[in-house]
Write a structure and sequence with these properties.
Chain lengths: 356, 356, 356, 356
């Protein structure tokens, strides 16, 4: 068994990592750290995780972590690069769920207004969105197979949902102009910290847009579209995203509704998307006319995609749904780790969503 | 007191009409009809309405209705024109919440694939969205003051939310091209009929787009934009709407997020909207930077609007929230009736939303 | 107009007081205080209250409060007696929603483990549960009519729901032994403070008992049963309550399910309850066989009661539903104030619950 | 692999069976039947189950079912005995989730007011609540090992939750008199059929008791207490249950709050329950003072139990939570099947609940 640690296990993505790793056939959970909750039973915070081993949170500097083969970092930005630096130095491979290894250094420093303190690691890191960037993850897996610790910077939840809906059309060079991306997220996207916004009585029976005019996730989406654009060997500028997130009263789940201004309508869009994801164990293009639902992917690494041509005025609408804590965070991190360690990509991720 | 009837009182819009009329200072509730529930206590269906008078549903052909001054029709399309014809013939003014008196005859017949059987009434009817069409409602009020029964075709819920967000910019001629309108509705928008879609276990913890590629409400929105465009004495074609509705797990509430492709960014958009709705008792433009919430308008005739310039790429985003059963249905119908009968436009509509 | 202040207007009960007073025909809202939010627009915290006057929170020591005729205290326990002392000294009548004026001094000090610093006021205060204690409130109204400021200690939410279900049978001397009271509260009962427990993602899709073995509200319930018992001129010990509260994922609402061990089953229980509440504008005994719902009373001062004899083994089950922020807090406080000021008891409390 | 069919796979319990069997290490899903949905993709009804094999519903008389080793019946009462008879005749072992094989014939016929048409099968069937009745299930497993098809009548959801909380104290002879059982169920307990009661807008923001005065599940609970009472070799009459179910707005989950009138308080209740469930892989007695939550067991076969002595007046309160579709239906059925087929009792049931 490969020894795994979760750094920052008291947050929502951390708890989902614990749940998934505890039942993973190849990973053995060695440590779950939280400085704030160190010493406390994990089941005190999350009684759903009663019986998990180890039973208690330990501090971030738990020496057991340094003995692990892989550490999943479910920490805020800037904490990601801090832990990555000390862990890689100890030979531990890092799968980071923070924003610290997603973006080019200059883009990161501008978006987060902070200096990147692990630029060398960032250079060697791979962007962890397998459907967009599998080749780079495979290359990292090869490096890792030679005994070198590596770093994956897992994609954010909104960028994952958006890229899954956008990439096939953008890679094919069929999109020109501004892609409108109106997204809906469940409340867990705001994190575990109790605030007025996340109070049940505030979030319940409410829907709203937020984060306008510009959300911190926008540069990552533009980077994704550029990656897809250049993968397709297209010329000129890649399309840009106009991103507007909304909150709705559900715990988990994300809808990305993308309106793509297309250069031609004379394309079999359904087939384009089906071909793009053929054989992918997690991304399912629904039959023509079906709209994806968040409840269908909750708790999983799955994405459901609906393709709607004929919207009029030169637009094609593509809609994806994911679980923001699953394919948008913990489950995708495990998918990335499976690739790095050479396991079956679906290992530990076979669970289906509940029908209700 | 003006005698009022609710035709189709067993549905959600009907129940909201009953709640509002029962406490209206000028209207007296005479009859609440439902063929399916005739004879049953209203409080059996809606225990919240315990104590309301009359206590029981009567059939649609209840003769008491013919004695009323006004009838609110909360019935499906085609039933609206049927009841309107027989009621106007009896001298009863009609405020119709169905789709039957909203659209020009040809547009209606194409959208609903049915013949309009009351074309003469349709010709004389006014579109019931006061912020867009107050002059026509005033003209109808004058006709009514002369003793003539009149017909108002109240705006739909999505069109109301969309037009409130679009009209000031469109009327000013500042919008060119396709307006993207991504909207979120609470589950009551699907009506009271129990279906798999409206089952708690299906709707709960789910968000999804629906009604694609084309929703029946789209022609009404295009009509609204044309009205606003011509009110501004603009030339050329009015902008068109690309409308995509979504469901989220709330009972009541609607968000309309509009991305307006603008012809210039050199406009004080906040001021444009504030001026457009200055003095309006129901439509509130929030301070710059604030995003409206559905919970803030639930149970009321209010609309909250947030204006977000600087979205990049030539777009201005305007977001409105309403209660789909309030400003989107029953409360707006009462606002229209207040205008027709010459009452204070806010009569019976003063209630504030609950803070939670 | 009678000048009214809300002390502690930033919490949930405070916000509900503001909503109700702003539309009350006899009270004029002069000040809404919050030390933490002083200077901020009320609509920043509660956009539903946009347009209310005054528009901003002021600090607790706002001199305008001392000019008021009545102050509603929506503050934590111990803060209630502090503000009551200074306000009564300034001639302001106090309607306190904290626990400070509900219990006899010794019971209070034992339950809250704190000294009561306004024992003289407590002595003269009346327990604010009109259905149980109308005579004492009438007596206070007489005192107030002579120009003396008075203090009402409004009943708690759980005690209100429990007493409405228990009092008629207990007063009639038909109950002997331990009354089981299993109650369900919406999340607003836990207050506005964001905590892990009130986080949407924790409260959603969860139900649980809490506060065991003994909840702070229990002594107040025992006091109520003793009041009812002695009102009926019964001998021996009054029955006691075994109280167990539960949380369910709704914002507002409370169910009290009481199992009464009865001394005889040979009673027309339905009639007993109907007679007890005959003419009461707020408490409605449902037709035999109907079970009350929280949604039917949300946002109101109403209580719905269902009476179920024939449960077997000598038990009668009586179930009441209220809105914990309405009849359980803000609305009942206004009912008490209406009595004290000699207004119609229903003034400002006429609104019906929404049917959904 | 053991061949398994789900009869009645379109309902909620059926869908949960499909989800669990599809990932079970020992069962292979051969057929999922529904007369109403025959021929339709399962994923049309439940997109969460996209990718499951077989992909489509077949009719109940699908011959493939007769080739199976085991059939799980997720059908209404009376349909259970019908299918059991024809399947056992074909040599198929039956795990029935309907009420048809839970009760003695006379009790069944009285409770459901219908003749039992498979009395011989009922005689040989075992009541499927392993924590209460493991010996009988083991005996059935021995019979099955000899090649004989057998029938398990799985316990109902409320009875499972109630018995887990009651049995240790009742078996020990420490309870005398009426056990009050106030329970809360999620909306899925009302089944998949869309009704006014299960409409999102009706169930949302509502809590209520229902099914009074007497619920059909009560006789099953009394039977359970009698089984436990006699297992403890106690004399006299077993205690009886006074059962009151409530609905709360969650999809899945059940709380059973039991107030046990105990014959002595001089017992280590916590230890009594811990010992009773020691080694049980599914039933977890929480540390003293902790109250169980429904969210902690959703989607699993787990039960969480909290024990609260010192409630006063001779009562001990014991609270259990289960998932009504998990331990209360589909997962417990699989646990029973695991026992019958000699598999590890936890096979296919290892998944932990989501922390949110």
């Amino acid at each position: 068994m490969v020894k795994a640690a979760v750094i920052g296990g008291a947050g929502y993505a951390g708890a989902e990592l614990v749940r998934l790793i505890a039942r993973h056939p190849e990973f053995e959970l060695i440590a779950v750290t939280s400085d704030a909750d160190a010493g406390n039973p994990i089941a005190d915070t999350y009684p759903a995780l009663l019986g998990v081993e180890p039973a208690c949170f330990t501090p971030h500097d738990d020496p057991a972590v340094l003995d692990c083969d892989v550490a999943f970092l479910a920490v805020p930005h800037t904490a990601g690069m801090h832990h990555a630096a000390r862990l890689v130095a100890a030979g531990v491979t890092v799968v980071d769920l923070s924003a610290d290894f997603r973006l080019p250094q200059d883009v990161y420093e501008a978006a987060y207004n902070v200096e990147h303190t692990a630029a060398d690691l960032l250079e060697g890191a791979a962007y962890g969105q397998p459907e967009l960037n599998h080749a780079a993850l495979d290359a990292l897996a090869a490096k890792h197979a030679e005994g070198e610790p590596v770093v994956v910077g897992c994609a954010g939840c909104y960028p994952t949902a958006v890229s899954l809906a956008a990439v096939p059309a953008v890679r094919a060079g069929l999109v020109s102009g501004t892609v409108i991306a109106d997204c809906i997220s469940g409340i867990s996207g705001a994190g575990k910290k109790p605030t007025y916004k996340t109070h049940y009585c505030s979030a319940n029976e409410d829907a709203q847009a937020y984060g306008l005019p510009l959300h911190r996730h926008a540069p990552e989406m533009d980077m994704e579209l550029e990656m897809a654009w250049s993968q397709g060997e297209n010329e000129g500028a890649a399309p840009k995203i106009l991103f507007t997130p909304h909150l709705a009263p559900l715990a988990r789940g994300m809808v990305a509704t993308l309106h793509l201004p297309v250069t031609t309508e004379d394309v079999d869009w359904q087939k384009l998307y089906e071909d793009a994801y053929a054989g992918n164990p997690f991304v399912h293009v629904l039959p023509a006319g079906k709209s994806p639902r968040t409840s269908s992917v909750a708790g999983t690494n799955n994405a459901h995609i609906g393709v709607f041509p004929n919207r009029g005025n030169g637009y094609v609408t593509v809609i994806s749904t994911i679980d923001n804590l699953g394919k948008g965070a913990a489950a995708q991190a495990i998918q990335c780790a499976n690739i790095i360690f050479g396991f079956d990509e679906t290992a530990g991720l076979e669970g289906m969503a509940r029908a209700l």
